[in-house]
């Protein structure tokens, strides 16, 4: 069931079956002109049922409703094509719109490219691709958003803010007068956003920290995140997130002290809050996620000049510049 969390703003909780995130916070902002929905959940029947029940309870007409995807991840975009076919106008950040289309059409190319870069011994197979088969199934039209664009919804005037890091084209919407921020996965309570490797030309972690510091300067009373509880003190939570990643960097620096490591060798020695006895017990998909996060931190050390990427036995290795 949906519940009002701020005047004319409703939280529509969408379950994410068999996923540690548990649920997505989709939001509905009512307006006599064009209501607005934030994010959708996976392209799964359980998600669609919950999403549409909340939409029906809100009484909005999808033929005159806007949908904003805060970023391209499939727990946020999986039902975008369905809502588009129901009449919604879809918005997403320009970079993530392109990434989402590429992933939707050729997931195996994206996953195999990353698995090669992460030095995973096994490639991504059909079972792993099927695990991601909850993305939009059909092409849909969208309007790209970038910083400086504005969306007016009822009594609220939202400014689009670029906040790359969790994804290259992640966006947030800021309402200056009421001090509200819809941040997708940028700032989360209870859990930390996953920061992963995207490309050697992108410092994902550096971008994320820069985006956190950017939002830290904003005057915000309410953060409406895509997972877990609402946030009232965004600066305190931002400081905690930055401290978490600093600890990760120190952990990885310690791992590299006894010599060069591949991404997977680094990930295997990192601490993970998962219920597995050893790295060998991790499912391949989980190794992919863990290695992606390790690589984002390793590449950040490269960007800072504290580590370097070297070739050894045909694989990328990382070593400290001044061990």
UniProtKB/TrEMBL annotation:
UniProt cross-references to InterPro entries, sorted A to Z? Metallo-B-lactamas, RibonucZ/Hydroxyglut_hydro, Sec-metab_biosynth-thioest, WH-like_DNA-bd_sf
Q: Does the keyword Hydrolase apply?
A: yes
Highest taxon in the source lineage: Bacteria
* Metallo-beta-lactamase domain span: 23-227
**MF GO annotations:** hydrolase activity
| Coiled coil stretches, renumbered | none
What keywords appear on the UniProt entry?
Hydrolase
| PANTHER family membership | ENDORIBONUCLEASE LACTB2, METALLO-BETA-LACTAMASE SUPERFAMILY POTEIN
Q: What is this protein called?
A: Zn-dependent hydrolase, glyoxylase
Q: Which organism is it from?
A: Desulfitobacterium dehalogenans (strain ATCC 51507 / DSM 9161 / JW/IU-DC1)
């Amino acid at each position: 069931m949906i519940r009002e969390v701020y005047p004319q703003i409703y939280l529509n909780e969408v379950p994410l079956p068999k996923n540690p995130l548990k649920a997505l916070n989709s939001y509905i902002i009512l307006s006599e002109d064009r209501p607005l929905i934030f994010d959708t959940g996976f392209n799964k029947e359980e998600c669609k049922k919950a999403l549409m029940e909340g939409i029906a309870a809100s009484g909005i007409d999808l033929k005159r409703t806007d949908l904003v995807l805060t970023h391209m991840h499939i727990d946020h975009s999986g039902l975008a094509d369905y809502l588009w076919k129901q009449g919604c106008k879809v918005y997403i950040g320009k970079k993530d719109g392109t990434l989402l289309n590429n992933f939707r059409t050729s997931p195996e190319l994206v996953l195999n490219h990353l698995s090669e870069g992460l030095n995973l011994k096994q490639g991504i197979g059909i079972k792993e691709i099927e695990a991601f088969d909850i993305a939009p199934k059909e092409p849909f039209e969208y309007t790209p958003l970038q910083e400086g664009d504005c969306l007016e919804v009822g009594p609220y005037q939202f400014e689009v803010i670029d906040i790359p890091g969790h994804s290259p084209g992640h966006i947030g919407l800021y309402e200056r007068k009421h001090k509200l921020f819809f941040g997708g996965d940028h700032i989360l309570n209870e859990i930390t956003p996953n920061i992963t490797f995207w490309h050697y030309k992108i410092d994902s972690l550096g971008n994320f920290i820069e985006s956190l510091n950017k939002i830290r300067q904003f005057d915000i009373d309410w953060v409406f995140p895509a997972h877990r509880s609402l946030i009232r003190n965004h600066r305190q939570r931002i400081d905690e997130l930055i401290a978490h990643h600093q600890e990760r960097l120190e952990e990885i620096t310690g791992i590299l002290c006894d010599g060069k490591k591949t991404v997977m060798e680094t990930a295997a020695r990192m601490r993970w809050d998962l219920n597995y006895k050893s790295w060998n017990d991790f499912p391949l998909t989980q190794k992919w996620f863990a290695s992606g996060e390790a690589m984002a931190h390793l590449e950040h050390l490269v960007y800072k000049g504290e580590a370097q990427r070297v070739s050894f036995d045909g694989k990328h290795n990382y070593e400290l510049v001044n061990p």
